[in-house]
C-alpha cells in the first residue's frame, strides 16, 4: 500500500506500470534494455477520497490528461527497480501536494515611510537620467 497521509492509502493495483526504453545517450545498453518506467494513474477511477480527486483534477499540470489520467515517466536511474520506485514516490508526492491547502493571503498596505522611500528613490533615478542628455558647448 502506498501511504498518502495518516488515514489515506492507495492500492498499488490502481497504478499501471509498464517498462519502456529510456531516451537519451547511453550506448548499446540503452537500445537493448527497457529500464524506464511509464506510470499511468486514473484519478477518477481511483479509491482516493473525493477531496484529493477534485484537487488533482483542478491542477493545471500537463501530465494530467483531459480524461483525468496522470502520466509519469521515470528514467533517471539505470535500473528498472529504481525507476519504478522513483515513479511511485513522485506519484505520492503529487497527490500529497494536491492535498495541501495554502494559507490565505492577506492584503497589506505599505507603510507611509516605505512609500516615501520609494518616491525618493524614483526622484533620484529620474534626476540621474535627466543628466544623461547631450552635452551643450
Radius of gyration based on Cα positions: 26 Å
Please state roughly what percent of the residues sit in beta strands, choosing from under 5%, 5-15%, 15-25%, 25-35%, 35-45% or over 45%: 15-25%
Large-scale geometry: elongated
Low-confidence stretches: none
**Could you spell the SSE succession in H and E letters?**
EEEHEHEHH
Number of strand elements? 5
- State the distance separating the first and last CA atoms: 83 Å
Residues in helices, as a percent range? 25-40%
If helices are DSSP runs of H or I spanning 4 or more residues, what is the number of helices?
Answer: 4
Task: Please outline the major beta sheet.
Answer: 3 strands, antiparallel
Overall pLDDT: 85
Give the helix/strand class: alpha+beta
Strand order of the largest sheet: 3-4-5
Amino acid at each position: 500500500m502506498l501511504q498518502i497521509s495518516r488515514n489515506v492509502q492507495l492500492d498499488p493495483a490502481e497504478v499501471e506500470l509498464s517498462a519502456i526504453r529510456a531516451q537519451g545517450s547511453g550506448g548499446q545498453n540503452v537500445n537493448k534494455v527497457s529500464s524506464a518506467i511509464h506510470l499511468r494513474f486514473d484519478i477518477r477511477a481511483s479509491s482516493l477520497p473525493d477531496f484529493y480527486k477534485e484537487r488533482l483534477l483542478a491542477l493545471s499540470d500537463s501530465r494530467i490528461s483531459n480524461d483525468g489520467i496522470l502520466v509519469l515517466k521515470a528514467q533517471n536511474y539505470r535500473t528498472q527497480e529504481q525507476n519504478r520506485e522513483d515513479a511511485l514516490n513522485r506519484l505520492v508526492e503529487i497527490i500529497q501536494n494536491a492535498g495541501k491547502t495554502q494559507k490565505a493571503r492577506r492584503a497589506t498596505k505599505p507603510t507611509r515611510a516605505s512609500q516615501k522611500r520609494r518616491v525618493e528613490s524614483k526622484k533620484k533615478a529620474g534626476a540621474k537620467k535627466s543628466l544623461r542628455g547631450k552635452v551643450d558647448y
